[in-house]
Amino acid sequence: MRPKDHCQPRTHFPLHLSAGIVAFVGLMSCGPAPTQNGISDPYEKQNRSIHALNVTLDKAIVRPVATGVDKVLPTPVEIGVTNFSDNLELPGRVVNDLLQAKLGMAVQNTLRFAVNSTIGLGGIMDPATKMGAPGKATDFGETLHVWGVSEGNYIELPVLGPSTERDLLGKVVDIGLDPLKLIIKKPAHLGLMATIAAKISDRGRYSETIDSILYDSADGYAQARLLYLEHRRYNLGQAPSESTFEDPYAQ
Question: Distance between CA atoms of 139 and 174, rounded to whole angstroms?
Fold first, then answer.
């Protein structure tokens, strides 16, 4: 009999996993997407129709509800709602930090989640910021940017509002990347309710700014589009100065 070759590995690395790692390393080596200037909006006609729908929904439902809630709820309660929603997003941010190879930020967001989920009473309070772990928002849209995927065309989504093709894909992937699905039985319902409550609260708190964009501009669609892209590009390190735009639809 032929003696066993002890140098030969007993197991083989799965081909599909190997291909996935090679693809991941290849994407990481591409570097961030190049800075995109100007506006690419080939779907403007459809986008304007959706924008008109969003404005109608805001005028008929979102704005009256948000204004009423803002008048009834004390500011600390509204801040608590926003903090709770933000805390639920932290595990997903940690995943994206790791995918972007930002290990320090992943550790900080993990620490932030642990502290605010315990001492902060489930995230209602934010002691982590005072302890030096303010955290930083991120998403899979930013991960794609880090991997070199370009912004793509501008699009406006029903209810969700301004976006880009890259960020739309990012929103979809973020749902599947949410680690809370392994912890909470129905995280989608909890996260959705928290997000809706936080957005309604923010709509009331930033009512003057949002109203000036949606209702006081000569062309509300063009204004929202410009400010959204400016704000997003700044957050990705692609714009020279910070926008003052408060995105009414930011997720």
Answer: 7
Residue 157, SS3 per DSSP: strand
Query: What Cα–Cα distance (Å) separates residue 92 from each residue in 79, 200, 236?
Result: 21, 22, 18
Model-level pTM?
0.81
Q: In sequence order, what are the beta bridge partners of 162?
A: 156
Q: Which amino acid is at 129?
A: T
Rounded Cα–Cα distance for residues 146 and 30 (Å): 8
Of 187 and 169, the one with more pLDDT: 169
Cα distances (Å, whole numbers) of residue 163 to 22, 25, 172, 196, 249: 30, 27, 12, 18, 9
- Does the structure show a pLDDT above 90 at 135? no
| Lowest model confidence (mean pLDDT) among 75-89, 152-166, 209-223, 234-248 | 234-248
Q: Where are the alpha helices (DSSP H) in 73-186?
A: 75-99, 103-118, 127-130, 140-146, 165-177
- Distances, alpha carbon 166 to alpha carbons 82, 225, 228, in Å: 26, 15, 14
DSSP label of 4: P
Burial class (CB in 10 A: 0-12, 13-18, 19+), 224: buried
What is d(CA 119, CA 212) in angstroms, rounded to the nearest whole number?
A: 39
Distance CA(154)–CA(42), nearest Å, equals 8
CA triplet 236, 238, 239: central angle to 5 degrees? Answer: 115
Burial class (CB in 10 A: 0-12, 13-18, 19+), 40: middle
* Parallel/antiparallel/unpaired status of strands 161-164 and 154-157: antiparallel
Contact 153, 38 (CB under 8 A): no
